[in-house]
Every structure is written in C-alpha cells, then in structure tokens.
Design brief:
Helices cover about 15% and strands about 50% of the residues. The protein is an alpha+beta fold and about 170 residues long. The radius of gyration is 17 Å and the shape is globular.
Length: about 170
C-alpha cells in the first residue's frame, strides 16, 4: 500500500520531486502509471504526508544493488544506477546500494544507515543522512571481498526499511 502511495506522490508532485534532478530525461513509466490517475483519497493521503509527514520519516522507494552509478555532471542519467546487479558478481567487486527516497517537507533524518552483511554477519555499516523535499537519491558502496551471499540492509535506528541480496562468485 505504501509503495502505491509513493508512486502516486511521485505522479502528483513530479514537478517538485524532480527539482533536485537537473536535466533528467523522461523516465520509463512507473508500474501502474499507464492507467487513470490515482484515486483522490490516495493523492490526498500522499500530499498530506508530503506537507505534514516530517515526524513520520522518509519513505524508502528503492534499494537497488549496482556496480555503477552515473556521476557525470549534465548526463541524462546523472545520479542513476546504470549497472544493476542482476547476476552473481566476482569477488572483490564494489557494489553500491543505490537508494531512492521520498521525503516530506522539512524532513532531515540523521538516523539512517546501510548495513552490508556477508552470510548474515555485519561487515560494514555506513551512515546515510536523508533530507530533501520529494524524491531524493543516494548511494554508498562496499567491497564484496568474500564469496557467498551478501545482504544490503537499509536501517532507520533499529528498524529495517528494505533490503537486497547479491551473490558473489569466485570467478
């Protein structure tokens, strides 16, 4: 349900949400974006969150493991994950946790972190402050230096907001 609200919010306040993303091309349609607009009660709930949800925290829309994020100034894909991890990666590959958030007005959150776990054991924890208005993105990377299953967990305090897994092969 919350993902549906977040998608509706992106559609409703797209001009505000994209203000932080200069020169962005039209993105591929979001799931569910090809039909009629969201119901008014859904839009109202998302707008209320955007305007008054500061104390509710940021909404994590995506956590995507990737091996390359475009940092080229002025690029049409600037700040996007451009190499999504879709199969096992080689040992000693740097994998980024690419995050997409939806933040309410005046939201600033210093209690967000990413944990990189190997076979269930925390190997690295990185703080990721989240702030902005509307859609915002960020990423942090870690060297996956052991063969096996790695998990990327996004945490706010002691609450898990989302996760993704990556398999690392010896290759």
């Amino acid at each position: 349900m919350f993902l549906r609200l977040a998608v509706a919010a992106v559609l409703v306040v797209g001009s505000f949400a994209l203000a932080q993303d200069p020169a962005q091309p039209a993105a591929a349609p979001l799931p569910g974006s090809s039909g009629p607009p969201p119901k008014p009660e859904v839009i109202k709930e998302v707008v209320d969150y955007l305007e008054n949800g500061k104390d509710r925290g940021p909404a994590l829309l995506d956590v995507i493991p990737c091996t390359k994020v475009d940092n080229t100034k002025g690029s049409p894909t600037q700040f996007q994950c451009i190499e999504v991890v879709s199969k096992p990666v080689a040992k000693n590959t740097t994998v980024f946790a690419w995050l997409q958030w939806y933040c309410p007005k005046d939201g600033k959150y210093e209690d967000v972190s990413i944990q990189f776990l190997h076979e269930g054991q925390v190997r690295n924890t990185v703080d990721v402050p989240v702030s902005g208005f509307g859609r915002t993105r960020g990423w942090r990377g870690a060297n996956f230096n052991k063969v096996g299953k790695w998990t990327i967990k996004v945490m706010r305090g002691d609450k898990e907001l989302g996760s993704a897994t990556v398999d690392v092969a010896a290759q």
